[in-house]
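Support case: octanoyl-coenzyme A complex. Customer-provided input:
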Amino acid sequence: MAYETILVETRGKVGLITLNRPKALNALNSQMQEDVVAALQAYEADETIGAIVITGSEKAFAAGADIKEMHQKSYIDMYMADFFSGWDAMLRIRKPIIAAVSGYALGGGCELAMMCDFIIAGDNAKFGQPEITLGVMPGMGGSQRLTRFVGKSKAMDMCLTGRMMDAEEAERSGLVSRVVPAATLVDEALKAAEKIASFSLPAVLMNKEAVNRSYETTLTEGLRFERRVFHSMFALEDQKEGMEAFSDKRAPNFRNQ
Ligand code: CO8
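Agent response - structure generated as follows:
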């Protein structure tokens, strides 16, 4: 399928989505929301795909929601369209999504990266929630997710001053999982995604679901959920195969069953 605002390609078992509005530094407009969600849903439905990477350009992952699309809208326009709620469909994607961030990840761009399962940053990455400088605030989860990633003090600092955080600070604060040289960013993200896609898909989905559950429930409930899912994994052929392969000192041959 052809998309207007993104490029998609399949690399082995990995789906690669590249945000592609270079003239607007990949500002997220409604078309891009539709395109990204449609591409994610297509990869979700594709049995040959085990993980997905979303990236942008070297200069910008995404410089925010498209200010030019938004600025004349009224309250009732935003409310009736439930503006930006279309991105929620991303949260229903069960396969892992890695954000590979080079350059600016600002406003909605930072929020999109945080909606992915983890972020690998190029050493030139810059994260920020500069909405305050525009007279608004984050609207795609920034005030909530950033706070959970980096804690209240830093999230307040970012949202109230609008300052940017570089890759080193982002890693130190827990916003990104690792920092790599910008020149190798996409390769490193693809390598991580290929590794994930080499494992048993049901086991991968259950791992993702369990980690996400920790954000939504109490520790006691989360631990109970984890134990029940862990027990259920002993119904998987891939569990037998993984453990047998370990004993036989050979590579496992997972069949996603
Ligand atoms: N929206 C639209 N166009 C943009 C955006 C954007 N967010 N960011 C950059 N552009 C455009 C510029 O207007 C410019 O276009 P043109 O050449 O036609 O003038 C082009 O991209 C290149 O940008 P610059 O010339 O500004 O490039 P610089 O290298 O000088 O600066 C910056 C790069 C620092 C990234 C600068 O472009 C900038 O500050 N951009 C805006 C960053 C920002 O404020 N982002 C937050 C946007 S608001 C938001 O994301 C809210 C999300 C939640 C909404 C929820 C609603 C319910």
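The chain has two domains: 6-197, 200-248.

Case will auto-close in a few days if no follow-up is received.
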